[in-house]
Amino acid sequence: MSHAIHSQYDSILILDFGSQYSHLITRRFRELNVYCEMLPCTQQIKDLTWHPKGVILSGSPYSVYDEVAPRVDPAVFSMGVPVLGICYGLQEIAWNHGGRVDPHHTREYGHATLDLVQTGNRVCDALFAGLGEDLTVWMSHGDQLSKMPDNFDVIARTKTAPYAAIAHKEHPFYGIQFHAEVTHTAQGTKLFENFVTVCGCRRNWTMETFIDKEIARIREMVGPHGRVLGAISGGVDSSVAAKIMHEAIGDRFHAVMVDNGVLRMDEAKQVDEKLSKDLGVNLTVVDASDLFLERLVDVEDPERKRKIIGNTFIEVFEKEAERMEKEMGKYEYLLQGTLYPDVIESISFKGPSATIKTHHNVGGLLEDMKLKLIEPLRELFKDEVRALGRLMGIPEHLVGRHPFPGPGLAIRILGPVTRDQVKLLQHADKIYIEEIFKANVYNDISQAFAVLLPVRAVGVQGDKRTYDQVIALRAAQTTDFMTATWYHFDPNLLSRISNRITNEVQGVNRVVLDVSSKPPATIEWL
Ligand code: XMP
Known about the structure:
- This protein is α/β, with parallel strands linked by helices.
- It folds into three domains: about 10-200, Rossmann fold (3-Layer(aba) Sandwich); about 205-400, 3-Layer(aba) Sandwich (Rossmann fold); about 420-515, GMP Synthetase, Chain A, domain 3.
- It has helices at about 5-10, 20-30, 90-95, 120-125, 190-200, 205-220, 235-250, 265-280, 290-295, 300-330, 340-345, 365-370, 380-390, 395-400, 420-440, 490-505; strands at about 10-15, 35-40, 55, 85, 100-115, 115, 135-145, 150-155, 165-170, 175, 230, 255-260, 285, 335, 370-375, 445-460, 465-475, 485, 510-515.
- It starts with a helix and ends in a 13-residue tail after the last strand.
- It binds xanthosine-5'-monophosphate.
- The site of xanthosine-5'-monophosphate (XMP) has 15 residues, from loops.
């Protein structure tokens, strides 16, 4: 992938041995404006299509002595570039250079303080040069080095790890037992910055340069007459991807938004206004809400809801594409808003994680339509996409928006999905989000939404007894959406939300708060 990227930016290669922290290494280097890419640790160096300026070996859940322990291609040490091994990566370097690793009597997990050792050797000392006062580091390992590899020096110790960091006496090969990529390691960023300097890597990865280069790349790929079709959901990824396509090829890019009847209140209208009127993107909104809602009648099983919505989406989109082709001529490409975490997930050493829910995606479109994929955000993390969106003039409320699932409100209405139930939930959700905005806490929450429960509860309004529905409020805080905690609201804000929902939404007399973490709960209720 991405030959163009590698010819434009100096890059660092991260070889992933399966640590839960591997993707954080990528994040930290990107934050230093250094482009980096992660590949599985089984990558053969001779098969690399680009030349990295440095290589990182990540941590791993394995021990180097496990029979099935993943092994780095030893050719990595003759590439003539610096290598930094983190935790298991250190042990892998040691193992390759005649060192010994033994199981530690207990697993070391938590904070430790580094004691730096000045060797007087310029190469060795470069990794810790100019580190600040706080030398707290984060340890998480079972094995540790018991015999130094040949020709290496110790460059740091801790109370329990006599070889907490090591460096080769001649080559820029370093190993650290601690995890510099997690924020608990106070000087982690400075350490990575030092490694970047040792690699002689230019720090030119910014969203400003990315826009120009990506636009040039798209123009070259699509050619002067090629045409691109894209599906827009209204979320940040597809909006940014659409804007970049529009900048690159103007009206030869055509976006389609399918209103599936289970969007947030007025969403189709708002996206139409923003993308098409304000940002000039060529956009068609197809109202297929009747068809979707018809097919959802009496369906309660969440996976069936997802399948129906996914399949109906493809059907509607394809029909629209056919109509457009008849009218305007052939499309060669399909735009997808794939992000780097999806790419990492699919190339990860551990392989794609088990599917807990079938996530809706438009990949199925390709088979019949014979469209080639175009993925302008494939190298980016979510916060980079947001920065890109801001630079391209996409309004803040679109750029900073919480994610919204493809199957929409259908997986937030726990009972049968009807137009009335959708309206009721849209209304409650709108109030909830409005109050969160007013209280200025929207950006502290990763994802907030209302859920409509399929139960009735007794209430009293005026002198009348009511028997109405219940709304649950969900607000999750997370960085990767794999694990999450519930957001601790100010009780006064909760009162305002609850009062407004029960007063303004006909058919609701009770509001409850979801206080479950993920795991064991998931973020969505279905
Ligand atoms: P869960 O509920 O699995 O959600 O903890 C994690 C993230 O994924 C989103 N999600 C979906 N997104 N199609 C989507 O496009 C789906 O079927 C789907 N299910 C969950 C969820 O909103 C959260 O951001």
